[in-house]
Design a protein that fits this description.
Chain A is built from 12 helices and 2 strands. By secondary structure, chain A is mostly helical. Chain B is 51% helix and 18% strand. The chains are: A mainly alpha, B alpha+beta.
Amino acid sequence: MATSMLPRHLSDNGALVERHWQELNSRRRLYSWLGFGVLFLALSGSLWFANGSNAGKFFDRLPHFFDFVGDLAPRDGMEIFRAMFDLPSPYDDGSFKYNYPEGRLYLTENFYIPEYVHKMLETVNIAIFSTVIGTALGFVLCFLAARNLMPNPWIRGAVRRIMEILRAFPEVVIAGFFLAILSLGPIPAIAAVSIHTIGALGKLFYEVVENADMKPDEGLRAAGGNWIERVWFGMVPQVLPNFTSYFLLRLEINVRASTIIGAVGGGGIGELLRLSIGQGHQAKTLAIVILLFATIFAVDQFSAWLRRRLVGEQAFQLAQ
Amino acid sequence: MTTTTRLSPMEMDAIASRHPELLQSSASKRLRAAAITGGVVAYLVFSWWFFSIGQVLGNANWGIAGTYLADWVSYEVRPEIHVAPDRTMSLTYQRNSPLGRNPNPDWVELDRETVTRQVDIPASTTQTAKPKASSSFSFMTPGSALGGGAMAEAESRVETRTEEVLTRVAVTYDRSTRIEIADGLVKATHGGDTLVMAVDGADTVTPQGVLPAWATQKRPGEKIVLAFGATGWAEVEGDEVSVRNRFFGWANFLFDTNSPFFGKSYGEVASLIVSGERIDPTRSNLSLAWNNILYNAEWQHLDVWTKLLQTVVMAFVGTLFASLIAFPLCFLAARNITPSFLTNQLVKRFFDFLRSVDMFIWALFFTRAFGPGPLAGISAIFFTDTGTLGKLYSEALENIDDKQREGVKSVGAAPLAVQRFGVLPQVLPVFASQALYFWESNTRSATIIGAVGAGGIGLKLWEAMRTNSDWENVAYMVFLILLVVFIFDSISNACRSRLMGRRAH
């Protein structure tokens, strides 16, 4: 259709439609600009506030941004290896900086586990143990919180609120509380991580249960199965792969979490890392960072591989 | 034509008995279930030993756990009644008592008497003021005349003084619990039982009669501990009765004991603010009251709020920057957008690196770079989440529908326009939703990296817990954190379900 054939002036209806469209467009543009403006204001306000309440100012400290690289430069490359495996250092001057062999854990007369490997294993074990505990309790609770298995809204609501509080409760506080009662050691970290895990996994679990196929359940109910039998034979077999996948995902997160909790007094590798960074022991720091990086990377890859085998690509939805 | 074949139950059983393997799960399957269960149990037993859990839990001080938990929502007032050998008494309160400097609560009844008597003063106390001399009922009131250096040489001396002493003290915990001290006898009543103890003013306590269930004494003559449950407890020693009266609530939440508004009811405070005379001539009562609330010495409202805001800001700015940087990078990492294998792998490994180094390690490094404060936290969250969001974003890009892109390409659009109109509309809601999710989750993690020095409320929480006596402050901060997390949770959930439709989250 040639443009010249189009009417030069629109009819009243046409003009109305055009005006509506223009109004809509300008309003949308206004909202977008307003949104950007608010975001920009919030951002600059936040930055100003953060900069003002920081110990060092951003622009003063910016040249020092990569100072931490200096924290990671040992005297020679072999030092990292020596620090990691507790071998004596040629630079040993009796200070804590080079006392690598001191933390050895002797299993037999000659065979020892290096300190950092030992602590790393402890951290990983904290993560596994608390994930197991959290999964077990989350497993029990999730069926009470699922709409399709628990028709009573009061029980369901109560269980869900409990999970929410367990999830949102700061882990530092749980760790600190148990630290005050028990002595230093891994148990505060275990308590903190597992309590958080109950809440986080419980939520993911009951969402899986609510999306499950109800036909096996109906069959069991028709055959006169009680609630536990319905859950155990009708629900568990179909949700188990998904639960296992979430268990593994949580394990990845918990390895990181137990490292952090360790740094605030829960033992394990986190505390050693904090100390060695604070005291400027380059070789030790780098050895721990490499160990930690390798462990987290290995756990991530292993769990991703296993999850892919268990539930296929759909395991990679967002979850934390 | 189909015919239905019905088997009689007899025949079913017959088939079942001929092929038993059909109805039984295979040996390997049963074995696997048993092996997994056994493995988990063995692991739990191993961990129990590895962490020596039984031993640690056995050695734990569970009694103090109850006190710490009660401290979250209640406070103790601790009058201490000192009993002299001549059976007169004096009363002091703990330092920083929540009742202020001159406490005179109505649950403590006192009978006073002025006596003239001889007081033994050991040499050591003549030089330094007695630490307990903070109360108006102390023997060693600042006004009492003491000779200067001459007295220091004397081993101990006797002085005749006229002063006011207490002859009877009655402390009422609640309706059924009460302690009364007079004439060297401590009479405690709780839940219908009455226990009378004789104190000698030196070091011996003698219970008269059988100890009820709520009273314990380890050895004859030693101190007796009276546990009254939630309402408090008391310790009776030969020369001192320590009362611990517990009250529900947070003491002095608005005004601390130094404030001119301390101890006034809400009505009084309101009328002072509205129409009262200026307490501080340089400013109005309203601004004075507000200032007193903000700088409340015990609750430190302003500091807590500032630190909480820092935590929120850390999560907000960190996540925002991370998503802004991850946004362009993820196009390089997605193999269907950038066909170069090398670039894909390089960017993806970079994301993996940022993620695996972990927020905690970044936080420690940046605390070194910027000093403690929110900038370190922002940088830590920024570095970690650039990795995480970049990975998630590139995965979302790799899962897009190619038809829209091809459509835009087929009309001859420039490469940038293809991305803008063919790709972006599909992934933008996913990107925004994931950024929102991480904003919310980072609000939680920002608390914990704060505890290692990266700014925010984490460190303040940690310090409050370290003292073991500020659990009510911990409870206050936890309450605020939970509040903020829940608010952000619902904001982010609402935004995400609008972005993604009902199903997402």
